[in-house]
Design goal:
With 307 residues, the chain is mainly alpha-helical. The chain is built from 11 helices and 3 strands; from the N terminus they run βαααβαααβααααα.
């Protein structure tokens, strides 16, 4: 904790103060988190042990599931436990750790989605050069780059926050620690800090979203030259990716590209991209992907026959 801060703990107000609604929050988000863990673990295990899912797209899907698992785990368990607590206390260091994890895994998800879009662009628009460009070594290098970039981004958020003095009050009107709620509690002018955060997180979300939507527009436009069967398969894959991009980026852009003001919908918007997106991704990538479903059936049949 920095020396210019007198606050050692924060108190989270959570999603609601109503005891009955808190019980509802507990059961709803316990179900969501349990489903997220099972769904993303199932995808990771399927890709890891399936011989048919060795393409770069599934290499990146494995890491997307891993990131979703970690992203949800950094937020959901505390929300679930706090929903049964009368005082939702979090220490200064735990709060900063949660901010770091939130931005580390959130930024990593952005990188992975960009790599998946690039993979689809090369596969559809440059099929003859696909195997030469998207080699295994290239995928590994891109993943290392993504982890490094995410670490730098998350560290920059923490550096901005730890320099702020927190003298009280220490009530965070949220269910988790994030940059915007903490800026409200700082006992100093945070205009420049918020400007840097918007330039960092806001620009990252907005530019990445724009790049992704343009890339998918180019992909969909190029499909006119493909056969009907090829168009159908590509459209199925790309529509899943576009859906994930929209539900991941729109809430983030809303939260990180605005002045330091709060709205009544902020908590629900945050719920959508911290808990809802990791829950929906496994459903989107399994229900709309025949290869993943077939690989899951084969692994299940092999396990059943072995037993």
């Amino acid at each position: 904790m920095p020396n210019n801060s007198s606050v050692t703990i924060f108190i989270l107000l959570g999603l609601t103060q109503d005891p009955q609604k808190q019980n509802l929050v507990f059961f709803i988000f316990l179900t969501f988190y349990g489903s997220t863990v099972v769904g993303n673990t199932l995808i990771m295990v399927t890709i890891k042990f399936s011989r048919t899912l060795g393409s770069p797209m599934y290499f990146f899907l494995f890491y997307l599931s891993l990131v979703d698992f970690c992203f949800s785990t950094s937020i959901a368990p505390r929300l679930i436990v706090d929903s049964l607590s009368t005082k939702k206390i979090i220490s200064y260091n735990e709060c900063m750790t949660q901010v770091f994890a939130l931005h580390l895994f959130g930024c990593m998800e952005i990188f992975i989605l960009i790599f998946m879009a690039a993979d689809r662009y090369i596969a559809i628009c440059k099929p003859l050069r696909y195997s030469a460009i998207m080699r295994r070594q290239v995928c590994v290098i891109l993943t290392v780059f993504a982890w490094t970039g995410s670490f730098i981004h998350a560290s920059s958020q923490i550096v901005l926050l730890v320099k702020l003095p927190f003298c009280g009050p220490n009530l965070i009107d949220h269910y988790c620690c994030d940059v915007q709620p903490l800026l409200k509690l700082a006992c100093t002018d945070t205009y420049m800090v918020n400007l840097m955060i918007v330039s960092n997180s806001g620009a990252l979300c907005s530019c990445s979203f724009l790049i992704l939507m343009i890339s998918y527009f180019v992909i969909l436009h190029s499909l006119r030259n493909h056969s009907a069967e090829g168009r159908k398969k590509a459209l199925s894959t790309c529509s899943s990716h576009i859906l994930v991009v929209i539900i991941s980026f729109v809430p983030c852009i809303f939260m990180y590209t605005r002045p330091p003001t709060t709205y009544s919908v902020d908590k629900m918007v945050t719920v959508f991209y911290t808990i809802g997106t990791p829950f929906l991704n496994p459903l989107i990538y399994t229900l709309r992907n025949a290869e993943v479903k077939n690989a899951m059936r084969k692994l299940w049949n092999v396990k059943t026959m072995t037993n």
